[in-house]
Amino acid sequence: MSTRSTVYKGKTGQWAFVLHRISGFLILMFILLHIIDISTINFPSVYASIHRLYGNVLMRTFEVGLLFGLTYHALNGLRVIMIDFFPGVIKNEKRLFVAMLSLSLLLTVVGGVIILKPFFTGKV
Amino acid sequence: MALRERSFTSQRRNSTTMKRSKANFETWSWFFMRISGLILFFLALIHFSITHIFNDVTTTTVAFVAKRWANPLWRVFDWLLLALGLLHGSNGLRFIMDDYIRTPRRRAFAKALMYSLATVLFVVGTITIVTYKGTL
Ligand code: HEM
To answer: How many domains does one find in chain A?
Structure first.
């Protein structure tokens, strides 16, 4: 790499961080929305009409995305915590990243099938 | 450069050669993200499993919520998720703002807006959970 290069080309740790940041931000945005939709519980007809939207296929796909964001952020968060508190873990941080990413993808696929199934079987 | 400062703090905490620095707000913030993260790991994943995996989203109706909230322990669970999620999330957003919003005025403005929004939503969420009197 040329010494004049100023663009940081990070390795796995940087991607782990970028994904962690984006997923954390998106989960927060969803939580803000979710507090508002649940607050309509005292107006049952409003709650019902908002809630009906969550059943359509677009929102179901969005829920699968939320599941990936949440499982990735949660598992990578554990990885960050382990690296911080157990000095030996840093040697395996790369393999740990691959493991956490794979596990969150696996959970997303399994959960995604369950979430989207009612659409494919024509129930919604 | 909030992140760099935080990793510095953690390095200094473990360093024996350097004098241990006095714990400041950022040290507590660093610690809080890890503790709340550990608790949220269980709260958030259990919550998602109940409302999206073990029950289809179409069945989480008013009656579903009324039935769950008939048990005060679920209200406590949901309130903890609300409080920790908002604190952890808005503190995380504070790091992000420190990293990308470079002028002090804009940064102060963005943070003020965020803290206000988080406070309002915390109040709205708390009122919803505490005062709900659903009939089964
Ligand atoms: C499910 C369990 C969770 C775990 C284990 C976890 C763990 C963590 C940890 C350890 C950090 C600090 C990273 C660092 O200092 O470099 C962090 C940052 C963050 N978290 Fe979480 N978290 C969880 C849930 C959530 C939730 C529910 C939200 C949204 C409300 C959220 C939003 C954020 C944000 C926005 C950041 C800042 C990201 C950054 O600085 O790049 N997290 N999380």
So the answer is: 1
The residue of chain B nearest to residue A55, with distances taken between CA atoms, is B58
pTM of the model: 0.88
Q: Are B56 and A118 in contact (CB under 8 A)?
A: yes
Sign of CA dihedral A23, A26, A32, A38: negative
Please report, for chain B, the start and end positions of each structural domain, with discontinuous segments joined by +: 34-131
CA of A15 to the centre of ligand 1 (A): 15
Cβ contacts (< 8 Å) between B40 and chain A: which residues?
74
> Each residue of A56-72: pLDDT tens digit?
999 999 999 999 999 99
Closest chain A C-alpha to B3 CA, distance in angstroms: 11
- Note the helical H segments in A1-124: 12-39, 44-54, 57-85, 93-120
pLDDT in tens, B86-97: 999 999 999 999
What value of ipTM does the predicted structure carry? 0.91
- CATH 1.20.1300 fits domain B34-131: yes
The answer to the question of residue A59 being in a domain is yes
- Report the separation in Å between the CA atom of B136 and the middle of ligand 1, taken as the mean of its atom positions: 36
Residue A85: which domain range? 11-120
